[in-house]
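ok trying again, last paste got cut off:
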Amino acid sequence: MITTTTDGVDGRTITGYLGLVSGDAVMGTNLFRDMFAGIRDLIGGRSGSYEKELRKAKGMAIEDMIAEAQELGADAIVGVDLDYEAIGGNDKSMLMVSANGTAVKLG
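nice, full thing came through this time. structure:
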């Protein structure tokens, strides 16, 4: 499945718009990951564990979006947008990634 952030696919003509498609992934974090991220926040540097979870959530959200587009018979998804949020109570212990785009048929 072609997925792109642009409004079209180079060299191809969009022959039909099938509608909006989306995928979401919410990933929980754990106490130890939060603790080490807090230490990284104080001393600087990257948090590899959070980056890994974010990549995993992004992949899952995109896979869900593609599956929805395939059910519609799409050839591609254009205008893809990714949104990231920290959700939960005061501790914001969940990571959410949303992937949205427009499913299209190509000529």
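cool. The first strand starts at residue 2 and ends at 3. The helical segments are 31-43, 48-71.
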